[in-house]
Each structure stands twice: as C-alpha cells, then as structure tokens.
Amino acid sequence: MYIIVAGAGVVGFHITSLLTNEDHEVMVIEQSADALESISRQLDVGTVLGNSALPRILKEAGCKQADLLIAVTDSDETNMITCFVAKELGTRMTVARVRNREYVNYFVGGAASPTAPRKVVRPKTFGVDLFINPVVEAAQEIVNILSSYYSTPVENFADGMIQIREFRAEKKELFDKPIPKIEFPEPATIVAITRSEGMFTPIPGEAIREGDLIYVLAASESINEIGQLFAEMQHPARTVVILGGGRVGAMVAEALKERRITVKIIEKSTTRAHWLAAELEGVSVVQGDGTDRDFLIDQGITLADAFVASTDSDELNILSGLLAKNLGVARNLILVNNPSNIALAEAVGVNVAASPALLTARKIARFVLHSGVVSAAMLGGEQVQALEIVVSPESSVVGRVVNDIGLPKGAVMGALVSGNGNIIIPGDASVLQAHDHVIIVSPLTLIPVVEKRFK
C-alpha cells in the first residue's frame, strides 16, 4: 500500500516504523525540518516538509494515489482538516488521531423551527474513516488488565474463540523445563518468548527461563487455567491508586468507578486536583507528591490492589511504579510516552508499561489489513505480529500440508480453526482447507513473505 503519515512525532515515528517493516511505501509530511531529517535518517521513507492541511502539500505527497492517510500531528483540528482535504483530493482511506473525545461523537445541529428535522453530522462527514485516540487506547488497556486475573495484555482472534496472552514465568517448577514437557489444556501452544535479547518464536525443545515473557495461544475458556502454570492468579482489582490526574488517569478512574472499583487519584497540581474532585463524583482525589514514600503510605497505597502511574513524566512513572512494588502493591501499571522506556520499566519490575504510541500503532495494524487477513495484533513491542488469515478457495495452500506451504523460518502457524469451528494446533502434516482461519505468528519483517504464501 502507498501510505501517507502526517506528523513525525513519537506516534508518527512508531506508526511509520511499523508500516515500513511491513513493506508498505510510506511518505511522511512534517512541519519540523529537524523531525523530518531524523525520521528519514532512521527509516526508508519519502518526506515532504510543510503543513499537511494544505492542499498543495498533500498533492506534493501524492495523496491522489494514496491508499491510506494517517494524520497524527499534535493538533486534532489539523488532523481532521488533513483527512478532509485528502479525501476530497482522492485518498482512499483516512485515519485521524484525536485527543478530544467530543470530536468522535455525532453532532446534532439546530433546526429552522421546533418541528423541523435537526441535522445530524457524523464523523465520516469530516472525511475521516477512523478516529484513533491514544489516550482512550491506553486507558482501555489499563482498565482491561485491572479487571482480569492477570496483569498482562491479551489479544482476541477468531471471534473471541482464541486468545494470545502474555504471562511472565514466575513459578520455579517451570524454570529450565522444555516446552514440550509442559502439560497444557488442549488446544494451546507457546508462540513467542521475550528475553533480554528480544522476542523470538521458540524452536522445538526450547526451555523456559526465569523471568521469560511467554505468549500463549489457546482456546479462550482455557486461558486463565493456563496462566496458573506460569504465575499466581490474582483477583480483579477492587481498590486502585492512580498517580496523575491527566487525561489517561481521569479516564481510567471514571471507567473503574463505573465498575464499582474504589479509586483514589493523587494529583500534584492543586488546580487540577480541585477540578478532578468536582468532575469525578465518587472518586477520592488528594493533592500531593507521588514520589513521597510516607505520603503514599498515609494515602493507603499498601492496602491497594493496584497502582497506576499516569503522569506526563516517564521517569516519574517508572520510579513510582517501582516504589509501589517495594511497598507491596501486587499490580503496578505505568504509562510511558516514549516506547523505548518500556524495557527499562519491565527491567525494574513494573508489571505493565502501556505506551499510547504503540497502542495506536497496534490499532493501525488492525485497520491496515492485508489481503485475506481479517485480524492483526502486535505482540510485545513492534517485533512480532499475529495475523488471522482466512484461506481463500483460490489460494495455493488449499489441500497442502502445513510443512509444505513454505512458511519462512521464524514464522509459526499457532492455530487453525476449521469450517466447523474446531480449534486445532496444527502439526506439520495438518492439511489446509478453503475457508479455514489460521493464526500465524511472525517477526514483522517476514509478514510480506507470509502473506505471499497464502495468495
């Protein structure tokens, strides 16, 4: 696909990185010459210097031929105008990043008289096919994890029949145990492992090491049982302390309150604290310093089920998450604006580091689906992707066994859902049929090769 990315900030960079790794042709529009030079130095992309909302700049970027435009500048309004103009000039699909949730709702205009119909303005009227709000993505990720039995992300496939979930290897009886000797409830398999050297798909006979991040593919009803093999099951959080009452913190607090979870927000700014207290009925808000150990203890953090750090400072979030862990909080989740800080956060023991930039890139991955692909998800950072592919009746793989379709080394077929709904962990001799759904887990760089095998 030919894709234009408007905005070369943190989110724009990581989306561009994802798209170029998948072998898309990408053109980046950016007003900052320094940012444009930085991205062109690191990634194989075309560049245009200028304001993406201007028709002249969009034409220079080739918007008439573009399959997709993704507008991720720092301005909601610029992003929407960019999409509107690009759509008018011939771009096939558009995506806009917005922070203000009011923009993604329906607008009901006035009427000429009390009895006249009122005009309803829908988001697509703006020429935007998809709105993405990184704040919402981060808040939803945190809330979903806090509401589950494990402090780890999960991805759904095959209409929810299959899940891939991340677990950390914590139980000693698993350490140095070869994967084939682990007794899973069937169907289930390990499709990827993350260690200090990075993420990889395990080879036959690979053994589990202490601290490994394990990605298990299994039937959804078995995933919690499987999790107990790696770590202790936790009850969903009932009391949560949130450091930082910004957009993410406020949104998480509001969502948790609706689930009848007791929430306390610690906010440094007195003005913001007063505003939050007035806006979030039923949520306790205190003004104070979240790095003060005694203050946190006084606020009952040692009694909380979970701690969430969502300030604008990655360093503060990481340090406070570590402090919460040392004070005995079972779950600590933090927000990181720079995805490169995720490894540092995990190294010091933070359970989950949510990055709005990476979560946005993952949603883009689901939107930019390839031929035959009905679902896609990033696992871990940006190294490995899971694809759900429907086998076309015209595909060359129909009637062939898995071992003969020529998947590249490092890519694995994790599961196969047959036409009658049976979930199968395929062996080398499993035969593919038309309309089967297959879940492929592959390094991002091999995705184009994987797709070609199913054409």
Overview of this structure, please?
The chain has helices at 10-21, 33-42, 55-60, 76-89, 134-146, 223-227, 247-258, 270-279, 293-298, 314-326, 342-347, 356-367, 447-453; strands at 2-6, 25-30, 46-49, 68-71, 93-97, 107-108, 120-121, 130-132, 154-157, 162-168, 188-195, 198-200, 213-219, 239-243, 262-267, 284-287, 306-309, 331-335, 352-354, 373-379, 384-390, 412-417, 423-424, 437-443. By secondary structure, it is an alpha/beta fold. It has a 6-stranded parallel sheet, with helices on both faces. A 6-stranded parallel sheet has the order 16-15-14-17-18-19, sandwiched between helices. Strand 15 (262-267), helix 8 (270-279) and strand 16 (284-287) form a beta-alpha-beta unit. Helix 1 (10-21) crosses helix 12 (356-367), helix 5 (134-146) crosses helix 7 and helix 5 crosses helix 12 (356-367). The model has no long low-confidence stretch (mean pLDDT 87).
Instruction: List the domain count as a whole number.
Output: 4
- CATH homology group of the largest domain: NAD(P)-binding Rossmann-like Domain
Shape annotation: globular
Q: Order of strands in the sheet with the most strands?
A: 3-2-1-4-5-8
> What is the assembly state of the chains in this entry?
single chain
CATH topology of the largest domain: Rossmann fold
What's the average pLDDT?
A: 87
**Strand percentage:** 25-35%
The second-level CATH architecture of the largest domain is 3-Layer(aba) Sandwich
From the alpha carbons, calculate the radius of gyration and give it in angstroms: 23 Å
